[in-house]
Amino acid sequence: MVRLDKLLVDLGIGTRSEVKALLKKGLILVDGVRITKPETKVDENTVKIQYQGVEYSYTRYFYYLMNKPTGVITATEDKNDATVMDIFYKKYPDAPKGISPVGRLDKDTTGLLLLTNDGKLAHELLSPKKHVDKTYLVTMDGVLEAEDIYALEHGVHIGEGELTAPATVEYTSGETECLLTIHEGKFHQVKRMMHAVGRTVIRLHRVSFGPWKLDHMDLDIGDVVQIELS
Ligand code: URA
């Protein structure tokens, strides 16, 4: 059960003060009944809201993209470190409970991170079977040779008996940066892949995750934005 005014805000009908004004004017029908008290408790899973002739049903899922900064860990809570959820709830204090990051970025990794309460989608995006693309801008301590690129693209042994699946490397000869696209999410995968070809990662920044791309968004480091899924 949730407060009616909160539900109306979540449905995108208006801000907290706007929906209170609409309620006061008797413009909102709740299961066919005119309700004016914002504190009325409703069952978000079954309630039908009507406003200006449009019927709204509750969207249970919320999606946000963060450009993760360094120094925070990708967890819902932690005793010692600040987490991505601390940043998230600072920006969206009224967001529903149950939002969590999809997958992990290391504490010193920056870039695109999806947060949602849609467990089914999170599961699908993380499933190794789905081969969701993740592209990282990797800054290294040196350059890559042609055989390093070949190895990264065809699979490298990263320890613990793990061999990586084919990946894509976009690289300009002589540079210490490359774009690496992987389709799996093994622990510290990019750092371990680079290590396998004798390079150390100096900076790691995820520029895309599945269909989402940072360069299509105006999202500074540390920012979070709510998105709609079509
Ligand atoms: N690979 C890594 O090594 N670290 C990350 O944060 C993400 C992918």
Task: Give an overview of the whole structure.
This protein has 230 residues and is of the alpha+beta class. It is 21% helix and 27% strand. The longest helix is centred in the first third of the chain and has 9 residues, at 16-24. The protein is elongated, with a radius of gyration of 22 Å. The mean pLDDT is 94. Bound molecules: uracil. Uracil is lined by residues 105-106, 109, 188-191, 204.
Short description:
By secondary structure, this protein is α+β, with helices and mostly antiparallel strands.
Which consecutive residue ranges, at least 5 long each, have pLDDT under 50? none
What is the multimeric organization of the chains shown? single chain
Shape: elongated
Our Rg estimate from Cα atoms comes to 22 Å
The hetero molecules present are: uracil
Largest sheet: 9 strands, mixed
* SSE series: EHHEEEEEEHEEHEHEEHEEE
Proportion of β residues? 25-35%
Number of strands: 15
Relative helix content: 10-25%
Number of helical regions: 6
Structural class assignment: alpha+beta
